[in-house]
UniProtKB/TrEMBL annotation:
Protein's UniProt name: Chromosomal replication initiator protein DnaA
Region (Domain IV, binds dsDNA): 336-457
Annotated stretches, region: Domain I, interacts with DnaA modulators: 1-90
Residues at which ATP binds: 161, 163-165
Its biological purpose: Plays an essential role in the initiation and regulation of chromosomal replication. ATP-DnaA binds to the origin of replication (oriC) to initiate formation of the DNA replication initiation complex once per cell cycle. Binds the DnaA box (a 9 base pair repeat at the origin) and separates the double-stranded (ds)DNA. Forms a right-handed helical filament on oriC DNA; dsDNA binds to the exterior of the filament while single-stranded (ss)DNA is stabiized in the filament's interior.
Free-text domain note: Domain I is involved in oligomerization and binding regulators, domain II is flexibile and of varying length in different bacteria, domain III forms the AAA+ region, while domain IV binds dsDNA.
Location of the protein in the cell: Cytoplasm
């Protein structure tokens, strides 16, 4: 043991003694040993059953001592009797011997077979790239090509239905294709928590540890659910898993509906780690990408889609790829029932009517915000938008703002009219239809409006 390690350990004992009753201290702490501190990870030997207690009650003590002695955030890797025997002796059974210097081949023989839970239908090939996801795709491909070395962890965030789960699985499938022996696990944070609970209940935490800490690639979906759970120990367990993998240069990819910094209820040290690698964002697909996604998707269906229909659909669902796919399913259902081969705009409109009504419009956007952004874009004040002056610039800004108010909020036409200086609902409808028609013919206007939309959201 180095001098620092000795000071560190003594400090832990001292602090623990100050915090615990004598009996608790003797039972839980006295026979623990510090094996080493390396790469800011303290390896501590414990009785199996005592780990939870340590995790729960002595984390702060270890952190404190770590900062005092090493001036760093020290994490912990607990090891147990069986780990020790495999570390120390060559005469125990063969299996544990082999774990001493695991080569990839040996590893795959010894460790239990893992169920990847990957969805084989998601690949890079069937993921359409656009400006809004190109960095996420590039990073995902880089990670899949050289897992554990490029960006670790890779943190992909974005709104629902934008392809996070797809990319996560594509990474896993691609790695698996290269290396069928790779130990890969896809899991939602929600299920990670469930597994944790089950293992706690059955008192089989070691199994869980074995399962997750021996992976080559861990793909965790929707990490934000970990933040919501206050269940004691889950974040800790995840933290330890993360460290164990990261320290061994094993790749971790996480997805989330928000940035690491916005994961409010997550422990700061986890957030810090999430930012160690690369954070990439996916935003809603623009019109071109939506057309491309649809054009690609309709190949799965036995119908003819007119170009009009594709463009119409791309105009209907603009914030979520899942909705686009859902629309195609609706259409296929209707077309099957009615035995229609060619999908016209009318057929499509009819089929998706219910979905359009369901699809949540974003009510939280105040009309005022829309007016402000549109005004800024066209160099017009909100006051002018609301007033009656009819110069060309102001009229366009006014009509675009009305169009977006209808498009992006749930407000009724009369309500929107009222917000625009008390105009009649028919004026709003007229503006809406006018802009809608213009967009269909005028690419630059469409792009302008997309740009404004992105500012508003
Ligand atoms: P998220 O996990 O971000 O909520 P998903 O990955 O589940 O979104 O994507 C929803 C659906 O949309 C999936 O079926 C996925 O295949 C599809 N999808 C999303 N983005 C794309 C894209 N760029 N190209 C092709 N399909 C996509
Ligand atoms: Mg998802």
């Amino acid at each position: 043991m180095t001098e620092n390690e000795r000071i560190f350990w003594n400090r832990i004992l001292e602090l623990a003694q100050g915090q615990l009753t004598q009996a608790t201290y003797e039972f839980f702490v006295l026979d623990a040993r510090l094996i080493k501190v390396e790469n800011q990870v303290a390896t501590i030997y414990l009785d199996n059953m005592k780990e939870l207690f340590w995790e729960k009650n002595l984390r702060t003590v270890i952190l404190t001592a770590g900062f005092e002695v090493f001036n760093a955030e020290i994490s912990v890797d607990y090891v147990f009797e069986e780990d020790l025997s495999s570390l120390n002796s060559n005469t125990s059974n063969n299996d544990s011997n082999a774990t001493l210097q695991p080569t990839t081949q040996q590893q795959t023989q010894i460790l239990p077979v893992i169920q990847t839970d990957l969805n084989p239908k998601y690949s890079f090939d069937n993921f359409i790239q656009g400006d809004e996801n190109k960095w996420a795709v590039a990073a995902s491909i880089a990670v899949a090509n050289t897992p554990g070395t490029t960006y670790n962890p890779l943190f992909i965030w974005g709104g629902p239905g934008l392809g996070k789960t797809h990319l996560l699985n594509a990474i896993g499938n691609s790695v698996l294709l290269e290396n069928p022996h790779a130990r890969i696990k896809y899991i939602t944070a929600e299920n990670f928590i469930n597994e944790f609970v089950i293992h706690i209940r059955l008192d089989t935490m070691d199994e869980l540890k074995d399962k997750f800490r021996n992976l080559d690639l861990l793909l965790i979906d929707d990490i934000q659910s970990l933040a919501k759970k206050t269940l004691s120990g889950t974040q800790e367990e995840f933290f330890n898993t993360f460290n164990a993998l990261h320290n061994n240069n094993k790749q971790i990819v996480l997805t989330s509906d928000r940035t690491p910094d916005q994961l409010n209820d997550l422990e700061a040290r986890l957030v810090t780690r999430f930012k160690w690698g690369l954070t990439v964002n996916i935003t809603p697909p623009d019109y071109e990408t939506r057309i491309a996604i649809l054009t690609n998707k309709i190949q799965e269906y036995n119908f003819d889609f007119s170009q009009d229909t594709i463009e119409y659909l791309a105009g209907q669902f603009d914030s979520n790829v899942r909705d686009l796919e859902g629309a195609l399913k609706d259409i296929s259902l209707v077309a099957n029932i009615k035995q229609i081969d060619t999908i016209t705009v009318d057929v499509a409109a009819e089929a998706i009517r219910a979905r359009k009504q369901d699809s949540p419009k974003i009510t939280v956007i105040p009309i005022e915000d829309i007016q402000t952004q549109v005004g800024k874009f066209y160099g017009v004040t909100v006051k002018e938008i609301k007033a009656t002056k009819r110069t060309q610039d102001i009229v366009l800004a006014r009509q675009v703002a009305m169009y977006l108010s209808r498009e992006l909020t749930d407000n009724s036409l009369p309500k929107i009219g009222k917000e625009f200086g008390g105009r009649d609902h028919s004026t709003v409808l007229h503006a809406y239809n006018k802009i809608k028609n213009m967009i269909a013919q005028d690419d630059s206007l469409r792009i302008e409006i997309e740009t404004i939309k992105n500012k508003i959201r």
